[in-house]
Amino acid sequence: MRWTLILGIGLVLLGAGCGSSSKSSANERELQHQADIMAIDKIEQTWHKAASTHNIDLMMSIWAPDATFNLGTAIYSGTAQIRSFWANEAGPFRPENHWVSDTPAYKVRITVSGDKGTLYFECHYVDVKTKEVVNTVAADQNVQRIHGKWLITNSAAAPVTLGS
Questions:
Q1: Where are the alpha helices (DSSP H) in the chain?
Q2: What is the mean pLDDT of each run of 10 residues along the chain (164 residues)?
Q3: What is the CATH classification number for the domain harbouring 96?
Q4: % helix / strand / coil in the chain, to the nearest 5?
């Protein structure tokens, strides 16, 4: 009787432990999902900081080595071409432009599934001197966790019109 009681209590505790483990795993998955969303959102924040400070190296830190960047009909492949675009063509990086780049939070959309995800945001470039919006661009991106870091693998950007 005593062994049966001890065995029964042991089985109940073992069963409770398994249930807790399952709940713990679900909690860990949710925490990882939220951490991934925050890491992907950091790409958008880095983009704006780089554009606002004319920091090409910072901008390039968010691109995968074999990334592609589609801007209208132009396609830039790999970091060398993408870097050249930012350094030589992009309005936010021109020395004469002193713009602050920002995205309203409600215009950011992020998805994540395992090591892949998507990131959409709009860039509103505001001239520091005039305080006027001088350019708006939407960026729709595929992102991927590569060697533990979320990076842009493909980006399609196009001008957007702000509503009144």
A1: 2-53, 56-60, 78-88
A2: 44 47 80 95 97 97 98 95 97 95 91 97 95 94 98 94 68
A3: 3.10.450.50
A4: 45, 35, 20
How much is the pLDDT for 161? 80
| Per-residue pLDDT, 21 | 62
Could you write out the DSSP letters of every residue in 56-112? HHHHHTTEEEEEEEEETTEEEEHHHHHHHHHHHT-GGGSTT--EEEE--GGG-EEEE
Is position 83 within any domain? yes
Nearest to 47 by CA among 34, 63, 36, 35: 63
Distance separating alpha carbons of residues 126 and 110, to the nearest angstrom: 24
pTM (two decimals) = 0.83
Residue numbers of the domain that contains 108:
25-159
Say how far apart CA 4 and CA 13 lie, in whole Å: 14
